Amino acid sequence: MPMISVSMFPGRTAEQKQALVREVTDAFVRTCGGNAEGVWVTINEIPAEHWAAGGTLFSER
Description:
Strand content: 25-35%
Oligomer: single chain
Distance between the termini: 38 Å
Radius of gyration: 14 Å
Structural class: alpha+beta
Number of strands: 4
Largest sheet: 2 strands, parallel
Strand order of the largest sheet: 1-2
């Protein structure tokens, strides 16, 4: 069973998250085969003060 992890900033609605997991699941099944019930997706919401790129926290940008 594949496990797909998505990391993003908080702030999306439940409806947006549902659409995201549906699209990710469908893309996996379309590309790699299998069935949707066997695809697991986790969403990790990471606050901007816990995420950085280029040495700068996103909360400081």
